[in-house]
Amino acid sequence: MGREPRMLACRGSRLDYMNTHSYRLAWLFDIDGTLLTTDGAAREAFAHAVRSRLRLDDDLSDIAFAGRTEPLILADILEKHGQRFGDGEEAGFWGAVVERMENTFHPARGRLMPGVAGLLDTIEAEPRWAIGLLTGNMSEMARIKLERFGLAKRFRFGAFGEEAPDRNALARLAVERVEREFGIPARRCVVVGDTEHDIHCARAAGARVVSVATGSRRRVDLESLEPDLMLDDLSDHGRLLEWARGVAGEV
User: If you average pLDDT over every residue of the chain, what do you get?
Assistant: First the structure.
């Protein structure tokens, strides 16, 4: 962690934008459970790396993945088995995870969540809106998942799991990056996610949050945490965009 992530093949390289102060709204999308599902491919990739690199047989069914950074997931695995890496071994573990994911996440597996493609089209058509990622995925894992559905070039920037120790710190990093590069304050950054972690990290960063009940969490449980907007899924474009335009118009 703390090293520069390999960026996705996003439109416009490395935030090279003109007239950044004309931007009014930033979208920060979670990936798993919000944009897409891998049908367990990511957990399978981690379990493979545990077998091949740690010589342990564990399907990781008792390890929490949803809404968490992948480095924290790895930390839980190591703690569970009383393991630690020697010099250079962690890089080998991540290499095994990525290699397995590339081989496992094929076109017959996974799906986009309802409404995602149409929503991204609409957001891209708004010239004063910036669209990026706020994900606990390592950047290479994010790339594999998004490229599987042709989405990698839809996002202009991202904050990834290797950049911060937890989701709250990662959200603060993302919001700071947005303000620096686009001139958009935290109150006009919108985190979109499917777990309580997305709500908590948005609040920690001073951002707004939209919750969708497309992941493993029940709508009633997410609603109890009072997100700024609660949706069944991202197909409710009209309601979401009306709300977003109101946020974008705030002084």
Answer: 91
